[in-house]
Design brief:
The protein is α+β, with helices and mostly antiparallel strands and 215 residues long. Helix content is 31%, strand content 34%. It has one domain: Pnp Oxidase, Chain A (Roll). The chain contains six helices and nine strands, in the order ααββββαββαααβββ.
């Protein structure tokens, strides 16, 4: 019921503008930005949250939520401990998929493609923009590694706080980002009676091909 009320509200402010006749007009990155801006006004959760799917060298899949804070024509960027499970899997198989779901506007966006590391300069710039607490936690946590108890993590954080007290926190050498280079972007717009709108953009060199998919 609550989700339906949010969708009704979205319709009232003119968010649901995904008529098939107009879908071919926009670059998918432009469309993503417009949709994100609308979701940012209405979503209960952080609209940058997306499910990230990876797989290991044997093809076994894994999925988790990440925050995608940067995107442009080059791709979609997320950051992590480079010793984490997701980073290890991306090193083995540098392909991934992202899925955003913004229930407030009834929209899913699916993105698939190859993944490459961001530059050190990009990682430094983003790390410097993070809250100090998040910076310290990046140093304190050996992401994905087993620990005997939470007390170990708290003690590690206390040591890091003492180490960097009174000074800026530099980016850890084991913390950086990845950019997903989109080869496919699909917009799935909720419609009544399950007659949803699905538009697929497929990369074709420097342009995009579009196809309407059956729901």
């Amino acid at each position: 019921m609550f989700a339906r009320k949010r969708r009704d509200r979205a319709a009232e402010v003119g968010v649901r503008r995904y008529l098939l006749a107009a879908m071919h007009a926009l670059d998918p990155i432009v469309r993503f930005r417009e949709s994100y801006d609308q979701a940012r006004k209405l979503e209960v959760f952080d609209p940058s949250r997306a499910a990230l799917a990876t797989s290991d060298r044997e093809g076994r899949p894994a999925v988790r939520f990440v925050l995608v804070k940067e995107w442009d024509a080059r791709g979609f960027v997320f950051y992590t401990n480079t010793e984490s499970r997701k980073a290890r899997e991306l090193g083995e198989r540098p392909q991934a998929a992202l899925a955003f779901h913004w229930s407030s506007i009834g929209l899913q966006v699916r993105i698939e493609g190859q993944v490459q590391p961001v530059s050190a300069e990009e990682a430094d710039r983003y790390f410097a923009s993070r809250p100090r607490g998040s910076q310290l936690s990046a140093w304190a946590s050996q992401q994905s590694a087993p620990i005997p108890s939470r007390d170990v993590l708290i003690e590690s954080l206390a040591q890091v706080e003492a180490r960097f007290r009174g000074q800026e926190v530099p980016r850890p050498p084991f913390w950086s980002g990845f950019r997903l280079l989109p080869a496919r972007i699909e917009f799935w717009q909720d419609r009544p009676d399950r007659l949803h709108d699905r538009l697929l953009y497929t990369r074709d060199l420097d342009s995009w091909r579009t196809a309407i998919l059956s729901p």
